[in-house]
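[audit] Reproducing an earlier prediction to check determinism. Same input, same settings, fresh worker. If the tokens differ from the archived copy the diff job will pick it up downstream; this log only records the rerun itself.
[audit] input (369 residues):
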Amino acid sequence: MGSFKVKLVAYFLLLSLLPLAAAFWGFSTVASQSEARRVDARLQAGLRATLATYQEALGAANIAAERLARQPSFQRALLAHDRPALERMLRGRPHLAVEAPGGFRVGKRDALAPTRQVAVVGAGGTRGAVVASVPLDAALVSRLETRSGLERADHVLLVEDGRIVAGPVGLRGRFDLLSGKPRTVSLGGTRYRALVAGTLDGRPTATLGVISPQTLIDAANRKATNQLLIGLVATWRYRLVDDEELSLTPSLHWPEPIVLIDPEASEGPAVTLVEYRIDPKTAEKFLQTMKEMKRIRQRDGAIRWNLLRDTADPERYIETFVTESWADHLRQHERVTAEDREVEQRAEAFHLGPEPPKITHLIAEQLPK
């Protein structure tokens, strides 16, 4: 009889644990996928910024070539094929070269670098050209990474003919990955989440990629899993806050954005700016409230959040948060709860002036190819 009772207790105990086990498995799976999506969104935004900076470098090279080509003294020296004068003009400009018909050339043209060329036209037609090169090297990759907005552990790679030629120290070798979709790859014995672009403008055999260590994703997943396990165990002992004390009802109080350009839902990233004027005497309390605001924005889909202060106007603060697309921002309008509204009202209570904080919506503009 005693054995039967033990088995019966064990049976009902198992039944009581099954819902918790199912919840643990389901939520841990969702948490794992959520962290991967968050990293993928960061890599996509970082790669877009990297490509934009690369295009800026090409534009700057073109401007440098145009400035030299417009100088009358340069045009006279080119017409006369005055090599010493042209060499003096190119001094301190290692990435510029001059070419003219008949094989005349001054300066070194990097055969592997993307170039921008500006023709010099005279009375008899084209008299030559100024060629500006953008070397694909470690210095360029470092500059691109600085402007990418990626986190410290993330990196930008330069890939040529399927091989890494510039990037983190010691990271070289094959890197065959289709463009446009994040994947997990192994490089030098370490696993990374990686994303690459299409071929580069001016260099069809080269491309740029961004990577993030998979170990950080795995660590975040373990942390989320452990927190979930602790939370599930705690539900046996502690009761959650009553619904009357915490309102999770959507407040729907955000006004519809003023839109005159009708962006597509998939366009992005989308940036929202909220401008506050804060008395320096209450700035510390305002910053404490904005810590809660950051949590809310990121919970509702923001992939980046910052609070900026105007160096020329100490009372002016600008909150910025970025979503991957315009559709993601519109979904934020639906996710704000009544509880979140109270946090917003606390932040706005510090704002000076009769008008509420100014809100601006921006959408990334696609440059022509």
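[audit] rerun output stored. Observation attached for the diff report: The radius of gyration is 29 Å.
[audit] end
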